Amino acid sequence: MINNSSEKKYAVALGYFDGLHLAHRAVINEAVKYENKGYIPAVMLFSEHPRKVISGDDVPFLLQKEKRDELLSLMGVKPLFVSFSEIKDMSPEEFIEKILINKFNVGAVTCGYNYRFGKNGVGDSEKLLEICKQHNIEAVVCTEITLDGENVSSTKIRNAVTGGEIEKANKMLGFTFGFSSRIFTGDKRGRLLGTPTINQFLPEGLIVPRFGVYASRVYFDGNEYIGVTNIGSRPTFDGESVRSETYIIGFNGDLYGKTVEIKLHKFIREEKKFPDGDTLKAQISRDIKVTEEHFTSQNKKI
What we know:
single chain, 302 residues, Elongation Factor Tu (Ef-tu), domain 3, five-stranded parallel sheet, disordered N terminus
């Protein structure tokens, strides 16, 4: 147990931070403010998604754990891990006493306006404020975060990613959606078409973006390039497995076996089956032009 009268207290952000989007970070930033009072800013994380434990549903994540931990470190908060199975049958009072007070020595908590806790979600943000007051724990409830007239939520971001609205998803995230994975050897058809690609499988459990072609940025070995990324199953060549194929503009080296990060900036078009390689090659040329024009226009805005 962490709890000890001589130990520093924690200011803990509460919620399920599966995307670290704008609303999540508003809650976390409130916890960070308590550093001025001598509290240690922290965020409580579950080792599994609550819906997985309750109903068995697999909920795709928006952010790889490695990237999540990197962002949390940059925000200056310490992750505190809890098993949802351990707390799911606790009453709101038990959760605060056994977990927040006895386990984590909490002096302050922050949460979103729609925060639920306790068995069957019987506790809400008002209940949290009430119980925390009884234990002399400071508490802050963050108001709804909206963007372009919509409230920011993980569900809406997932819908935007799967619907091809990647620019909307990126705005709600507050960063660019992407992934990192190892390059594997493909069938080298892109090389025959004059546009060699790097082949990657999407990380297991990551939400799968709408199949199609994206203007992307590519990162490896400290370098940044722009690219044309196709997410899908390659119907022109009767592909079956879902993968990411990226043509890196201006790069001709060998990246097999390396881990490369891809960030999706703009949805260009749907994936489609072409009658032959020449037609596909002509379309790829158009995709490259659209990608270059997109990033040129973005650079002009900066």
